[in-house]
Amino acid sequence: MSKLLKEFKEFAMRGNVVDMAIGVVIGAAFGKVVNAVVEIFLNPIMEALPKMENGGTGFAGSLISFCAVLVEFILTALVLFIIVKAINAAKNAKKKPEAPKEEPRKCPYCLQVVEKKATRCPHCTSELN
User: Fold this and answer.
1) What is the pLDDT of residues 86-119, one digit of tens each?
2) What is the pTM assigned to this prediction?
3) How would you classify residue 115: left for phi > 0, otherwise alpha for psi between -120 and 50, otherwise beta?
4) Domain covering 2-94: architecture
5) Where are the domains of the chain?
6) Which of 33, 49, 51, 60 is most exposed, with minimal Cβ within 10 Å?
7) DSSP annotation of 41
8) CA distance linking residue 68 with residue 60, whole number of Å
């Protein structure tokens, strides 16, 4: 049982799973904000547009609902894109480029690795420049 819990903990703490969970929570919360913006600001504007003949609200009402859902989707996707882009930029900024490793000094006679300050090769005892 302990092994199963340990494996589950490793799975749950992987970067991708945690990132996905954060994205779902932020997406749900932001969806509510966008929905409120659509309900408070956009729906009154669309309802103020001229109605169809005979006060027909069937098609116009459907069109307003569709436009509201479309705007909500586009705003949600745009903000989530900006959030993910900012997170990725922050992750990439933390990574420092590694300095290229110097090749070790080798004896020109026996091709063994020699300390940089050495004047003689400890392997073949040849004098080094």
Assistant:
1) 877 877 777 667 778 888 899 988 989 998 888 8
2) 0.41
3) beta
4) Orthogonal Bundle (1.10)
5) 2-94, 99-129
6) 49
7) I
8) 12
117: tokens are 């300050």
* 5, amino acid identity: L
DSSP-derived secondary structure letter, 108: T
**Looking at the predicted structure, is the pLDDT value of residue 53 above 60?**
no
- Residue 51 · residue 57 · CB < 8 Å: yes
Residue 114 burial (C-beta neighbours within 10 Å; 0-12, 13-18, 19+): buried
CB 75 within 8 A of CB 34: yes
What is the sign, positive or negative, of the torsion defined by CA atoms of 35, 36, 39, 41?
A: negative
What pLDDT was estimated at residue 114? Answer: 92
User: Which 3 state secondary structure label does DSSP give 65?
Assistant: helix
Q: What share of the chain is helix, strand, coil (3-state, %, to 5)?
A: 65, 5, 30
